[in-house]
Amino acid sequence: MSKAWWKSSVIYQIYPRSFADSNGDGIGDLNGITEHLDYIKELGVDVIWLSPIYQSPNDDNGYDISDYQAIMKEFGTMEDFDRMLSEMHKRGLKLVMDLVVNHSSDEHRWFMESRKSKDNPYRDYYIWKDPKDGKEPNNWGSCFSGSAWEFDPETEMYYLHLFSKKQPDLNWENETVRKEVFDMMTWWCEKGVDGFRMDVISMISKDQAYLDGVAHDGLYGDPSPYVCNGPRVHEFLQEMNQKVLSKYDLITVGEAAGVTIDEAKKYANLDGRELNMVFQFEHMGTVQGEYGKWTTERVQMPKLRAVMNKWQNELEGVAWNSLYWDNHDQPRAVSRFGNDGPMYREVSAKMIATCLHMMKGTPYIYQGEEIGMTNAYFKSIDDYQDIEVLNAYKELVQGGFMEEEDFLDCLKAVSRDNARTPMQWDDSENAGFTTGTPWLKVNENYHMINAKAALADKNSVFYYYQKLIQLRKSYDVIIDGVFVGLLEDNDDIYAYERRLGDQRLLVACNFTGNEVPCDLFQGVSGEELISNYKCHKDGVLKPYEARVVLL
Ligand code: GLC
Ligand code: CA
What is the SS3 assignment for 456? Predict the structure, then answer.
């Protein structure tokens, strides 16, 4: 196996809570995953990334960890884990663990010690500050609404939590913290895991001045300039690389909120000093509302293309891209970038998949994306479980900034719970996810959209993804070819070439529900590698048509 196996891999992300429940408690679990490994293998991916499965009080569904070396009770036991890992390896599937070390849970032993007294040996594991004029040390807001500081009466100081108050930030300035993290990573590597997806890793180094952020409308200040890609982040990651990563043959991807091209060139440099790749967010944020992500506005393809092409062009030869439309923090890809109505759901799901999977980088598929699962369209705030939603509801709706109805419309478009509804396995009750009561409502469309139906239909989105993955394994141009954007002024068509030696791969995708003129394929001869239509029409692309031709 070549050293850079992660360049030719395709990764499948599982959100364990919503994947498959093996014991009827309504919560997905490790045995549920093990039972479905053949399904994942059939898709053809090489690597599985699991959202966190560690011991956690689940304030943020496992992204708040109280023991990094134990399995969440609801998900199973360490024996279940070992069996799952060995079943994955038997099938040639690798396992990527989610590494959540910007913060821990407030129920982690370290934090319970830390908050006890100012001279506790664990005090400096977290970020404690004195009140300023009787209030928070600065105006930073948390990513989940409200202040990023929580007052702790025990020692009358504030601790920093960039996410919920049950997710105190670890103090990476403290060498002992870094050693604890590196030792814990080594422990998992020795167990045989194959890599890490590093949660908000771009936020581990804070600017030590703790200056106020820019505030908006009487809301809290934005900490990002002081916490994203902070002063020592590359130093910390290089240390992690030297002490842990370089000792194993791993795949590493950093979730890098606020990352710029220049920063990404450091994080994901091909020299291998830090990580293999990062998740950038620019293409997820091409539309923003008055209060951040809460908007119903549709993504405009030309804007999206400009961002994606920039990342393709600028990282060429220097760093490596990750490719994704979807994950557990985003709405469903087909609802957001395609068309999830009955007429075009499948064809547009295939189109957006084509657009992404023919690019340069390592593609990620989020559970259910491969069958074209759609947004949940919940009608009431009571249907939502996500702490981000519930906190924002309090702040924005109850705080009088937004009307309830408008906020609910935003949730239908962008809430994270859209991606977290249970995996739709078949058309039996609860979509075959559980025999109990699912922790989050199943999407009502499961009778039509489910894995069983997809596997029975040769033309399904599932088999289309399978073919895209096979193509990546068969044509080096898809892995190594240089990206060249085409038709960059076109409002409807996203087109590009990949070039390797004398090979040229031509890719064109119609992002609209209309037939649009396209002469890219006029007079060219080559082999069509994949398309979501059987017949083409001269000089046009049909609604949501995608074509890939090797010239
Ligand atoms: C990352 C995770 C998200 C989580 C947050 C805090 O963005 O993907 O799900 O809420 O970090 O850990
Ligand atoms: Ca269960």
Answer: coil
